[in-house]
Amino acid sequence: MNKDLAAKVLRDPVNFMAFGFGSGLAPFAPGTFGTVVGALLAWYSAHWPMDWRIVTAVTLLLTGIWICGRSARQIGVHDHPGIVWDEIAAIYTTLLFVPATLSWWLAGFVLFRLFDIWKPWPIRDLDHRLHGGLGIMLDDVVAALYAVILLVLGGWYLS
After folding, report:
1. What is the pLDDT of residues 10-24, one digit of tens each?
2. Which of 17, 95, 110, 132 could serve as 42's disulfide partner, Cβ 3.0–4.6 Å?
3. 147 CB contacts (<8 Å, ≥6 apart)?
4. How many domains does the chain have?
């Protein structure tokens, strides 16, 4: 990891948030580390009323557009792999739709990461065509949507 980048991330509150409170500085798989942070936030808030959890998800998603866009401009790289606020917001949103059990959350985690890495249509197109904070956030939101669809269909089929 570039020491100048790490210093910039750790000194600036916007970069610190965009880099998942430092998790995006991981030397490998920063997106997965960011996803873990989002899952921990979901676990922490799992006992909250659903309306508060939905407000939290919407807040994470909407503020992420600004946070990710500003961080990308500051460091000069669009959708730098270390910017993981989008993974945090997307996994948090994904986990709203499944029971708070280890097996469901593990399935949500794996499916979200699979779609985020694989980037099936239209995720790859969104990732390449949209710039700024919206582009950084939207591909992960669609990956989360794909994961939720499979989880909901799987839950319906298994019940």
Report:
1. 999 999 999 999 999
2. 95
3. 94, 108, 111, 112, 114, 115
4. 1
